[in-house]
Amino acid sequence: MNPLRHIRRLALPLALALPATAAQALQIHGVAVPASASVGARQLLLNGAGTRYFLVFKVYVAELYLPQRTTTASAALQMPGPKLLRLVMLRDVSGDELGTKLTHDIQANVSTDAFNNMIDGLARMGQLFAQHKELHSGDVIELADVPGQGMTVTIDGQSTGAPFSEPGFFDNMLKVWLGDHPAAQRLKQALLGDAKSID
Q1: In sequence order, what DSSP letters do the residues of 88-133 get, joined into one string?
Q2: CA 12, 186, 107, 54 torsion: positive or negative?
């Protein structure tokens, strides 16, 4: 077994078992993954993290932060309170291409009615990513959901505008990674705390 891979497999359960203040950040393909993150005044816990691949190419590291940890997609999607999905790019990607792919993946994971209710927000998100001609390796995208306010998108710490306030917008977005037809099954398992799937 590759020693580095073995260490990574041991690292996630260890980090999740420690208090957030004591846990060391994971390292996934050179990306530091903290054990906790803040959304507003609320401290969230790392639920899981993993890598999105396209064919053999690493695209981004994804990190999911929730009010409490869970190993099931349904519990993560239905959990009340703020949530955060953080994507750290591992390669240069067209912003327009990323936005289009996200839209297709949402459509594959939500009902027709739910998708129709998201159309205005998805059009705005498509414009947002299209304005970023290219996302570069190291860029950080954060999708943060605050109940009663909606989902905000930041790129490298810069706000991209008003929240997406359509009901359920964030959780429907989250189905790209946790839905019945996720973008990558291995990444879904990683975000749900499966340490064997983090890389």
Answers
A1: EESS-EEHHHHHHHHHHHHHTTS-HHHHHHHHHHHHHHHHHHHHSS
A2: positive
* Token code pair at residue 156: 């490298």
Residues 137-176: pLDDT tens digits? 999 999 999 989 999 999 988 888 899 999 899 999 999 9
Phi, psi of 103 (to 5 degrees): -60, -45
Hey, what domains does the chain have and what are their CATH numbers?
Answer: 3-197 (3.50.70.10)
What are the tens digits of pLDDT across the range 46-75?
999 999 998 889 999 999 999 999 999 999
Closest CA to 173 of 94, 117, 130, 89: 117
Distance CA 85, CA 170 (A): 10
pLDDT at 25: 59
pTM of the full structure? 0.86
In whole angstroms, what is the distance from residue 160 CA to residue 13 CA? Answer: 34
Distance from C-alpha of 71 to C-alpha of 82, rounded to nearest angstrom: 18
Strands of the chain (E only): list them.
Answer: 26-28, 31-33, 36-39, 42-54, 57-66, 83-89, 93-94, 134-135, 140-146, 150-155, 158-159
